[in-house]
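Hi, here's the filled form for the chain we discussed.

Project: internal
Contact: R.S.
Residues: 169
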Amino acid sequence: MSNSSRPSRRIHPLSIFAAIFVAGLLLLLAYVLILMGSGTGRQADKPQASQFVTIIPAPTETPVVIEPTAALTATPEAPMILPSGTVGVGAYVKVGRTEGAGLRVRAEASTSADVRFIAMDEEVFKVVAGPVQANNYTWWQVEAPYDSARTGWAVDTFLEVIGQLTPTP
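And the returned structure, exactly as it came back:
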């Protein structure tokens, strides 16, 4: 056989370069996988010691200035014991003698003051202030024992005493 009939077995120089390049990539990939498997490539997952020190200042003794306040303490006066049937502060009264029309309880002790509400006969109130003389009447400030918002001034002509607070020793 002659050389001319035989195919040539020559390797192209680019094929050799491509083979070396692929082998290098495979070695690089193997190296990366080994590093990741050993844990040295995962430094982001590991907790790291901080290189910074946080300085917390020690507590200091801060003086607290307490301002003295003048506390005025009112001395309660002993309730005056009124004769039976007399209207006075602390007495419980009921509305009466209005012939069913009710008693106009006003914002101030005056016949020209606004009417806050109409108190009906037999309605009970506690006398909280007074007396005030105005318009030829004696006015007492009354307050419903069940509703402190239901308060105002009433003329004593239509108030009947039903009880008195007695001092407790």
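Let me know if anything looks off before we file it.
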